[in-house]
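User: My collaborator sent over this chain with a note saying "see what the structure looks like." That's all I know about it. Can you take a look?
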Amino acid sequence: MEKQNRLFVGSLAYSMNDEQLAALFAEAGTVVSAKVIMDRESGRSKGFGFVEMTTPEEAQAAIAKFSGKDIDGRRLTVNLAKPMADRPARPSFDSNRPRY
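Assistant: Without extra context I'll predict from the sequence alone. Here is the result:
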C-alpha cells in the first residue's frame, strides 16, 4: 500500500541538509522524518529528498504550500512519493574472475 503522507521533494538547494528540510516542512505540519539523498561517491546532495508528514492531510498541505515555491533560488517539486520500483540485483564482482 502506498503511503499517502510520504513526499518526494525535488530541486533542493545542494546546500540543504536533513535538519533544514525538516524545519522547512514543519511550516506545513508535523514532520516525522526528513532525508536529503546524498551521493555515495562524493558525499554531496543529489538535490532531492523525502519528507514524511504525520497525516495525509498534512502531506497535502505541504504539497500545496511548497510545490513550485522558490527556496534558495530553486523552484521545489513536491508530490507524493511513489514506491521504489523493483530493480534487478546488481552483479557481484569476483576479484578472481578474469576481466575482458
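A starting point for your reply to your collaborator: The mean pLDDT is 91.
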